[in-house]
Amino acid sequence: MCFGRPPKILKDAAGGKDLKTYVQPIQDIGGQVGYGPPGKTEAWQPIDAGHVGAVVKSLAKQGLERWLQQPYKGKVHFDHEAKNWEVWEQNKFTMREKRILMTWLFGDAWAQIQLPKYALLRRRAFEKTGLLITKNGKNDGQVIAEGLKDFQPPLNPLSPRRFVF
């Protein structure tokens, strides 16, 4: 329960395993699970709408570039002090090591996104998707559904400025 009400969840894809592990437990407590329009996540997912995902990928790429320039400290032996990029080019890293590296790089990038200098980026992403609107409808004009340029959300009949969800 969320604030005494059953949750309403919007997902981006319907998968077979989702039914047992994700959808059914939410439905068991009276919640609803819906699926957003395919191929239009920039209209309703903050990570896509506010370019947060692109910034995270860019920060991860910068982290990878820094890591590639660092001295190699692995199990493969070289006759000189090798850099990570040399070992990478020779394809000496296992898939396990690459997955661990990517997890570390994206985790670090996500931690950077939480810094105060990205606060406006994060806020704007939630505003654009309508997930950070006020009850009185004051900021409804901030909702901009990218990818759905002609989309007009339905109005709440009790207040001409509020959206119905």
Description:
The protein is mainly α and 165 residues long. The protein has two domains: 8-46 and 129-163, no CATH class; 50-118, no CATH class. Helix content is 44%, strand content 9%. The chain has helices at residues 16-28, 41-44, 46-49, 52-68, 84-89, 95-113, 119-128; strands at 8-11, 32-35, 155-156, 159-163. The strands form two sheets. Strands 1-2 form a two-stranded parallel sheet. The chain has a two-stranded antiparallel ribbon with strand order 3-4. Helix 1 links the parallel strand 1 and strand 2. Helix 4 packs across helix 6 (95-113). The longest helix is centred in the middle third of the chain and has 19 residues, at 95-113. The protein is elongated and about 70 Å long. The two termini are 17 Å apart.
Quick tags:
165 residues; mainly alpha; 2 domains; 7 helices; disordered C terminus
Question: In short, what is this structure?
Answer:
This protein has 165 residues and is mainly alpha-helical. Helix content is 44%, strand content 9%.
Secondary structure layout:
Layout: E1 8-11, H1 16-28, E2 32-35, H2 41-44, H3 46-49, H4 52-68, H5 84-89, H6 95-113, H7 119-128, E3 155-156, E4 159-163
Parallel strand pairs: 1-2
Antiparallel strand pairs: 3-4
Helix pairs in contact: 4-6
How many domain regions? 2
Shape field: elongated
The helix count comes to: 7
CA radius of gyration is 22 Å
Strand content: 5-15%
* Structural class computed from helices and strand pairing: mainly alpha
Largest sheet: 2 strands, parallel
SSE order, one letter for each helix or strand = EHEHHHHHHEE
Arrangement of strands in the largest sheet: 1-2
Q: Quick one: how many beta strands?
A: 4
Uncertain runs are 156-165
Question: What's the overall average pLDDT, rounded?
Answer: 79
**What is the helical fraction, as a range of percent?**
40-55%
